[in-house]
Specification:
Elements: H1 31-44, H2 48-58, H3 70-101
The structure holds iron/sulfur cluster.
Iron/sulfur cluster binds at residues 15-17, 26, 40-41, 45, 47-48, 51, 64-67.
Amino acid sequence: MHGRPPIDGVWLQSATCASHPHPEWWHSHDPREIDAAVAHCRNHCLVAEDCLAFALATGVKGSVWGGTTQHERTQMLHRNDRLLARGRRFRRASRRSTKGSGNVTTG
Ligand code: SF4
């Protein structure tokens, strides 16, 4: 891992950024280096999904994780929030229409 706090997880043992010759790319502000880190994650790391899941679950800020930038992860979380809110609205509407219909069938 590239200067991150210690994290438990078997997936970390396969984190290819840990042995990359340019670990600073994962923290860079240079778009070319960020792109290179993202490409490395996506093309050479077998644990990118675990890494991304960790970053999303913990809300860690900054750096490249799981082949995503902070901006991309923020977009993912906002999209997820919108989908969850839509799901809640749908379930509420379904309950209201079920209560009102009196046509509930059970399987
Ligand atoms: S996905 Fe990228 S940041 Fe995550 S462990 Fe792999 S190489 Fe490192």
